[in-house]
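ERR on first pass: missing label on line 2. Operator R.T. fixed the label and resubmitted. Corrected input:
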Amino acid sequence: MFSLLTVILGTLILGTLATFLAGRSARWVALITSIVFLGEVGALLSGYTWPGLSAVSGPQFADYQSVPWISLPWLQINYTVGVDGISLAMILLTAFLQLATVIYCWNEEKRPAAWFGLVLLTCLGCFGVFVALDVLLFFLFWEAVLVPMFFMIGYWGGVRRRYAALKFFIYTHVASVVMLVSLFALAFYSHATSFDFSSIYAAANGTLPFGAALPITVQVFLFLGLFFGFGVKFPIVPFHTWLPDAHVEAPTGGSVLLAGLLLKLGGYGLIRWGVELLPNVMSHVSWLLYTVAFASIIWGSVVSLAQRDLKRLVAFSSINHMGIVLLAIAVNSSLGITAAVLLMFAHGVVSGLLFMVSGSVHHTFGTRDIVSVNGITPTTPMLATMVMVGSLASLGLPALVSFPAEFAALLATWDAIGYWVLIPLIILVVTAAFYIWMMQRMLFGPPKGVPETAHDIPWYEASGMAVLFALIVIYGILPYLLVNVIVASPIKAWP
Amino acid sequence: MTFLSVLLPSLPEVVVLGGALLVFLLDALGLKRLEAMGGVAVVSTLVALLLVVADLRFGPLAGLATISAASIDVPAAQQSLTALFAFSSLGLVFQAIFLLSAFFVSLASLSRPSDEKGASIFFGLLLIATLGMMLAAVAADLIFLLLAIEVVGISTYLLVGYTRREARGIEAAMKFYIVGALSTALSFFGASLLFGAYAGSGPVGSDPLNFLVLNQSVGTVGYPALALVGYAFLIAGVGFKVTAVPFHAWAVDVYDGAPTDATAFLAGGSKKVGVFAFFLIFLGPITLRPLLAATTSSFNYTPDVQLALALLAIATMTVGNVLALLQKEMKRMLAYSSISQAGYMLIGIAIGTAPAITGATFQVFAHVFMKVGAFLVVAGVAGLGIGPLIDDWKGLGVRRPYLSISFALMLLSLAGIPLTVGFFSKFILFSAAVQAQGLFVWLAVAGVLNSALSVFYYGRVLKVMFMDPSPSPAPDDSAPASSTLAFGLGWGRSAAIALAVVAIVALGIDPQPVLQGIQSAATHFVVTGA
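pass 2 clean. output:
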């Protein structure tokens, strides 16, 4: 009757409402919701097989459910949900990050009910984006993510929080309006029978009997609108400037969700509603995607070199990593898309850990300035270990989760455009440089700026990090656990 | 045609008229308690509403019965061509909308100060105005329509000035009266020109200003050039009623000067009569004319009328929005926003397709909850001792969270934020514009841009309520505290506000049941012209 996805959605909605109303015991409600959510995602994974491709409506989805929502003669909107391997990887990431964030923020003192409610609401929105297969439903969840993040930055954030929250809101809201208009235009101009992914696919690509495809110029034009809409979330250079501000001002939990999940919405959206929906466009626009990807990779990395604030450094390195994701999408081969999804998962986990680390550095030493806090290993060995693991994972050390993803991405790039792969490859050295430089100063130098009273991180912060730490190692050594899920999707039949 | 067969379909009107007479009777008998008169108003609007909804839902009590002015002489087939009023399903939908807004206003007004003078005038005229609106909704004849609008007009002029306490209210009433008289004159002049253009052009014995006859003869016979001038006057005359720019200037002063509960009724109820009048009058030249154009095309003024209405719609929403941005007083801001919302509704008739009429009607329906609700909150908050400026609402979100969240939901709905009914009403209207294609897509673009603009002034109120600190001492400290559901505003007003909020959220999640009904009514209206 109900698909498992609807049940999960119901769990999250109830859990979120209960958390908002729970008062002082909100963290327990949030924890229980997160554990149930993770269990349900486990059940989803264990029962998953990809239903295959259809000649008419394109890629099919597991746990599919479609119920009419608004039926008018000229407008058919459904509640349609479904998953494939690509969204499953993202859902798994959502479940783990939600759990890790709730544990990490265990001792939140400023209005805990509202805080945990907003954390859950953000994850609810992200889950919805990953399972929604109707344009309007997708947009509702997409916007639903924006609002809690705005309040998390604006209320719990740092000194310039109002400015950062407003900038975040304006950038991403303008982008989502452009995205929405493009998606609606796609649905209307292709004369799709409903707002469902499958109907739009069939109408736009002309796979219906007697159906004519949308002219390729229109497709390209709409794809560019979608690319802008999703790209700002990525973020792509030159629309990235909201990200460092938002991250620096956001509270730690907000940063974790922002980097771990919100940036993934852009990547996921581009794959699902861009590349997968309009497969014929990519040959016309891939040059643009390559250019933007290279720009993001280079800019994100080089600017990171100049940062003194640990959090800002991690934020810029996110731009670099998401640039590699975009590069892998631009390649548009089955290896490339697999690499892109894997890298999004890896970046979600690794950047989550790194933002937790920089939050803990801030709590422990009162500053995140790399130059003024040195040699922390003797006082806070646990924190130092986490800094090290996160940094090594982020620079792509083998046996940690980013390595297989980045390797696959670069391999796919080599297959597609040959020696151009040298650009990201050389930049990898720069990435390694700024992480090693940071570690050398912060972890191993002579102690400086470390107060006598500094204690190692509390148990809840350590436990939150440990969840991500475990994922980094497990999926780093056994990446096929995840890759097998990801490729059980239209990637199998990618053009 | 027996007495009963006339009475039965018009039972809702009879109930409302009876309610009004009962209010005046109670006053004459010396039972001057506000609760008694308000109770009569609440009950009679609710009963009439249920009758209308039952009629819509369970097959017409009267079918699409028509009652002829001269029914005995005219053969059955021609009855509808001489009818003064006819029960069309879209008309019944509008009746339900009008009754709903009258119900909300009278329910909330139960919480007005009970020692206030003139309760009988307020509730009695409210019911008479509602009766006029209901008659306008079933009009089948242009003159009958204008007369019904005049009934609404005269009662609402009095409603604006009934307290006779403040100079502002009296000034507003005078202004309303003078402008209203002018607009009536313009409308009737336009109607007389139409009569001159088409008299005798319909079937023998038909009434040339019956909408069915008029729509048949539009632009095909008679003197089309004369008719074009007539339509221009009607645009101006009815344009005053819906506060279309450039005929809007009176509205803000009147809305501002009137007692706020009366303002709620003006903005959410009586103004919408103008919207329906636009539907009735211009459906012929806009929609039916192109169908006829194939047969005779001596003088085609459809593009002119359509362009005029489209420009009117764009001007109305833009000017209303821009001026709303500049306002410092809450009531004036809401008044300008009400003007801009009229612009969205005019999109519907400018396009004239069934989807567009559906969208506009649903927008009118949604307005009952968001706009009437917002004015009812403003009236209640003024009763707590909070001043008229937006800045006077500082920190209300902390002091009275439930009331503030309710008001916030109404504003978010007006702005068209998802998961409120306002989102779907705008979404369906704009999708209808896109679906009509051609130049109409620009109407949708203008609408979307205007919605984006409106977020700023609604958002500013949210910021003032929730982010700015409370002044101390706060002006409403001595007023009763806000508990969960009774917002500290008296139970009648609290119930009205709570109902509106529930409707905003419930219809924001699932609008289909209402939308379905409106859609079939609108389709019937566009296809048959009645």
